[in-house]
């Protein structure tokens, strides 16, 4: 109990010092305002909802990719393992994809998954629009699902996947290309989110006002990707018999929660930095 009391007093003392510095430092005031705004709208809950929608989208998208990979392997007269390696998949993930894509009725699965992916994309876009409406306008009631918005979400997903593949290719073929690979990923991932942000509620501001949030998402996705490549994947591959699919699912959900938090934070950052709406 004594340690808890000391810790509580230490935290309270730190909180008072931060509050005292708020009037003197604009950066401290901005940070606290951002935290207060996030707490008032339930940023953590919104991030969890986005993580769920991302999972709902990634599940049929991954199955569509796997079935398409199997169809490509059959048309090119190659084994599914070879097709998986050509797609840049290695280790445990390549073996799991190759095993799944070797199942029969691939054409039927591929055709049925197309509308499922479109529906999941539409629900994700609607969730994003509601979150941005809450952040920017205080309410998500006016959120509308538009074909251009759905298409931009799908394009952004493809760009992020392509960025990961390009970075992996640069790393494998050029040992000194690490910096260029990072820049490519940041530009593609951040640019992809900027395109999506333009389709979401953001008051009447120019696209330049959305750049800070796009940069946050780009940098955040880079760290998530690096963590998954160097930590999560190797951990799961090294203990595949112990963790298996459960370990992969846990790592995936953790990554999606972080991505959801990045999206909410980027919207809050842009909304707080943007100039106030002009009165009529």
What does the model show?
The chain is mainly α. It is built from ten helices and no strands. Helix 3 (43-75) crosses helix 4, helix 3 (43-75) crosses helix 5 and helix 3 crosses helix 10 (244-273). The N and C termini lie far apart (58 Å).
Total domains: 1
What is the makeup of the main sheet? none
Instruction: Report the end-to-end length measured between terminal Cα atoms.
Output: 58 Å
| Strand tally | 0
Query: Structural class of the helices, strands and pairings?
Result: mainly alpha
Q: Radius of gyration over alpha carbons?
A: 22 Å
What is the topology?
Elements (H helix, E strand, L loop, with lengths): L1 H20 L4 H16 L1 H33 L4 H7 L4 H11 L4 H32 L9 H27 L4 H22 L11 H28 L5 H30 L7
Helix pairs in contact: 2-10, 3-4, 3-5, 3-6, 3-10, 4-5, 6-7, 6-10, 7-8, 8-9, 9-10
Question: Would you summarize the structure shown here?
Answer:
It is built from 10 helices and no strands.
Task: Give descriptors for this structure.
0% strand; 280 residues; globular; single chain
């Amino acid at each position: 109990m004594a340690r808890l009391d000391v810790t509580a007093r230490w935290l309270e003392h730190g909180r008072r010092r931060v509050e005292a510095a708020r009037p003197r430092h604009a950066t401290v005031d901005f940070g606290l305002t951002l935290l207060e705004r996030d707490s008032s709208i339930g940023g953590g809950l919104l991030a969890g909802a986005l993580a769920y929608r991302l999972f709902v989208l990634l599940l049929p998208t991954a199955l569509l990719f796997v079935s398409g990979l199997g169809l490509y392997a059959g048309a090119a007269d190659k084994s599914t393992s070879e097709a998986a390696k050509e797609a840049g998949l290695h280790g445990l993930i390549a073996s799991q994809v190759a095993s799944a894509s070797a199942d029969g009725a691939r054409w039927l699965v591929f055709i049925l998954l197309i509308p499922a992916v479109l529906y999941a994309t539409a629900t994700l876009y609607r969730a994003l629009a509601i979150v941005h409406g809450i952040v920017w306008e205080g309410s998500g009631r006016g959120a509308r699902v538009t074909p251009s918005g759905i298409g931009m979400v799908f394009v952004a997903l493809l760009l992020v996947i392509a960025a990961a593949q390009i970075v992996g290719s640069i790393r494998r073929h050029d040992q000194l290309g690490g910096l260029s690979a990072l820049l490519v990923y940041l530009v593609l991932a951040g640019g992809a989110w900027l395109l999506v942000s333009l389709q979401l509620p953001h008051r009447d501001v120019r696209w330049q006002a959305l750049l800070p949030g796009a940069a946050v998402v780009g940098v955040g996705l880079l760290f998530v990707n690096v963590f998954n490549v160097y930590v999560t994947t190797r951990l799961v591959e090294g203990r595949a018999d112990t963790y298996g699919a459960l370990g992969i699912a846990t790592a995936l959900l953790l990554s999606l929660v972080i991505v959801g938090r990045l999206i909410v934070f980027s919207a809050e950052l842009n909304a707080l930095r943007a100039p106030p709406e002009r009165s009529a």
